[in-house]
Specification:
The strands form two sheets. A four-stranded parallel beta sheet has the order 3-4-5-6. A two-stranded antiparallel sheet has the order 1-2. It is mainly alpha-helical. β1 and β2 form a beta hairpin. The protein contains seven helices and six strands.
Length: 331
């Protein structure tokens, strides 16, 4: 049989002759004694009515692999986070404590078949409770349960009612778990849809930006092409104008008639002819005066006559001039 000590620090468990050997036989003093070699003091771990054994460097050897654990008739308000590592438990008695909630991973105790939570302060059970697929017996009486959960659990006044409570509560928690899974799936799908929408919007914005850049490049290219065409047209127009002006200016021929020359060129040509004619006449007059008159003995006339004789001699040496002179002499 199991009996409860009125004080937390003197909590102990015993096993009757008819109970299996796997039944846990230990007290908190024995646990601390196993950790005592590591400098752990029980008084240092007490905080009012709560005993905190975390960070006590307890290992699996400190907690034997018992299948039955009785923690009833204490003032436990919560269970440590590593409590659910006792997956070998088959029977667990947490009745007549001050537990306000069970660990969130309580469903790790998958081998649990008998669970007594009588007279605690539980309002809800963790969703992982649905994983206790081997649970056959459950007592939730005298807890401020949620009305729906209290109605599902019902009474546990005899063995049959407690077994039915285990079945109904498991079904209820599985339904809650399924609903939460569906809700989680819906949220996940909504998040994925939102993410896809954001990605689609991002792709649309990127496509718009690419299209805008493409249009800007096309417009810039078109602007440069128009400038190039305008420049080329202006150059062609200038070349055409130059050719037109060049075509309007007459080209001089190899033998040009004075009447075909421009008026200003004709005037210069006529003036040059008149000047040459005047010089020629002056030269003839000077030669005639120097050869006929008495001035032929003057130094100037002597030079002119000598020059005249040299010119006549040079002309006579040329065949064409000789022929001309000969014809003139015959005539």
């Amino acid at each position: 049989m199991y009996w409860c000590s009125p004080h937390l620090h003197s909590l102990s468990f015993s096993r009757s002759k008819n109970e299996p050997l796997e039944t846990l036989n230990f007290s908190l003093n024995r646990i601390m004694a196993k950790a005592g070699g590591k400098g752990v003091n029980l008084k240092d771990k007490l905080d009012g009515n709560e005993l905190d054994l975390s960070l006590s460097d307890l290992n699996e050897a400190a907690l034997p692999k018992a299948t039955i654990l009785d923690l009833s008739c204490n003032n436990l308000t919560s269970l440590p986070s590593d409590f659910c590592s006792l997956t070998h438990l088959v029977k667990l008695d947490l009745s007549k404590n001050q537990l306000q909630q069970l660990p969130s991973d309580f469903g790790r105790l998958v081998n649990l078949q008998h669970l007594d939570l009588l007279n605690n302060r539980l309002a809800m059970l963790p969703v992982s409770f649905a994983q206790l697929k081997n649970l056959k017996w459950l007592d939730l009486k005298d807890n401020p349960l949620d009305p729906i959960l209290a109605k599902v659990a019902g009474d546990c006044l005899d063995e049959k009612q407690c077994k039915q409570a285990a079945i109904r509560v498991l079904q209820h928690m599985k339904a809650i778990q399924s609903e939460q899974d569906r809700e989680r799936q819906r949220r996940l799908q909504a998040e994925r849809a939102m993410e896809k929408k954001r990605e689609a919007e991002q792709r649309a914005r990127e496509a718009q930006e690419r299209e805008l850049r493409r249009r800007e490049k096309a417009e810039e290219k078109e602007r440069r092409r128009r400038e190039y065409d305008a420049l080329r047209a202006a150059r062609q127009e200038m070349e055409t104008q130059t050719k037109k002006e060049s075509s309007e200016i007459p080209k001089p021929s190899s033998v040009s008639h004075p009447s075909q020359l421009p008026r200003h060129r004709r005037s210069w040509f006529q003036a040059l002819l008149k000047l040459l004619l005047l010089i020629f006449l002056c030269a003839l007059s000077t030669v005639a005066v120097c050869r006929v008159t008495e001035l032929q003995r003057q130094s100037l006339c002597i030079s002119v006559n000598a020059l005249y004789e040299d010119v006549v001699t040079a002309l006579k040496s040329h065949k064409i001039v000789q022929n001309v002179l000969h014809q003139n002499s015959q005539q």
